Amino acid sequence: MILAGIEPRAEMVHWWFATGILVLGLLFFAEVIVGPEVWGRRPWRRYLWPGLLFLLGVLMWPVMALYTNSMIHMVAHGSWAQVLMIAGGAELGVVRGKLHSQYWRLTSAGAFLVSGTAFLVHEQNGWFFARAAFLHHALGWTLIVASIFPLVQAIKPRSLIAASGFATTFVVVAILLYCDRDSAAILGHFSRFAGVMHR
């Protein structure tokens, strides 16, 4: 009972993740602007993406254990955590020079696909049920479509369009996550089954 009183709303958890994802997007834009050679002059910068990606995967485990209300949520968050950690580990191996093939970067495309699917699978309501439902659908399809960017980066690492699209994806995902409200209207529509509307 005490935990139920202090447990944050789901939208708060989404906002915390949005902050980390926004930081990643801004870092990617900085790398696109200065170029990978200049960006790589400071060795610690190369570890930001793999490290934060792996950290997002690790932080998904407590979300799975503490903030889920159904089995489908646990499966979605658990698979999401695993794929983020695998992609972060693979990217770290590439940066460290332990993994030599550029195709290891395909794990990032896999992380986008699984993340998008996780958003779609664990939202069981329709697009216009409430704002949270709409955003889960929008986030899911955004990530699935955007998985083309890391796929192109694995094949053509110097593609400016793919790098820019990759960075833009993170900023768009962060903005969508910041828009989350558990029980709020979307485009003037709010289902009578969605609960008590707030904000």
Explain how this protein is built.
By secondary structure, the chain is an all-alpha fold. It has one domain. The protein is 71% helix and 0% strand. It has ten helices and no strands.
Number of domains: 1
| Order of secondary-structure elements | HHHHHHHHHH
Strand tally is: 0
Task: Tell the overall outline.
Answer: globular
Quaternary arrangement of the chains shown? single chain
Helix content: over 70%
Count of helical stretches: 10
SSE diagram, text form:
Blueprint: H1 2-6, H2 10-34, H3 36-39, H4 43-46, H5 48-66, H6 71-96, H7 106-121, H8 131-146, H9 148-155, H10 160-178
Helix pairs in contact: 2-5, 2-10, 5-6, 6-7, 7-8, 7-9, 8-10, 9-10
Gist of the model:
This protein is mainly alpha-helical and 199 residues long. Helix content is 71%, strand content 0%.
Task: Offer a few descriptive terms.
199 residues, mainly alpha
